[in-house]
Prior knowledge:
With about 240 residues, the chain is mainly alpha-helical. Helices cover about 70% and strands about 0% of the residues.
Amino acid sequence: xxxxxxxxxxxxxLFFFNLLFVVSGIALIIVGSVIETQYRxxxxxxSSSYLSIPVLLxxxxxxxxxxxxxxxxxxxxxxxxxxxxxxxFLIIIFILELCVGIGAYLMRDSVSDYMKISMIKSMKxxxxxxxxxxxxxxxxxxxxxxxxxxxxxxxxxxxxxGSSINGxxxxxxxxxxxxxxxxxxxxxxxxxxxxxxxxxxxxxxxxENVTVLGxxxxxxxxxxxxxxxxxxxxxxxxxxxxxxx
Length: 245
């Protein structure tokens, strides 16, 4: 069975788009993995439902990679069934990607509120042996974002750990050394510590990643719609060729 010149062009173009889908699948896996890894460092501040979004994106990336490879085979073999199946998968994936993108964007404000409450509560468990993960999370957050406490360094003043040393954790210090944050609340040199709270930079960090995540998902999804159009055109042409044989 031979396709006419126009459909051969569509076939080759669809094959090219499928290669792009394979690459886009890899891109989604990478983006999802990077964001999931970054959020994992602040696991104690995010709800599990929000952390599931990057995981879903990684899963979609794997599916797109497999479906893209499937579409390449269908286009080259001129299989009507494979091409139609490929188009159906693309539509389903597009809907899922759209949901991921919109869901991530809509959740960012509610996650921001949840995050602030979680940060304030988790400070009470700082330096408690059974909550060692919380301590590590706060140390990483304050060190990497050059901040101290949730709203500011004074948050540690009413905290059990802060009261015990009359100061702030060592990772609040601009030069982190042992006991550098001690006695800050009794005439210590405030210029040696970070005074701004960690909520604002973590919120901005989260929103920036949400924008990237949602943009990638929706952007790739709309590109896939072009693949659906080409797939339908090729499938119709293949079917017509079969009917005329």
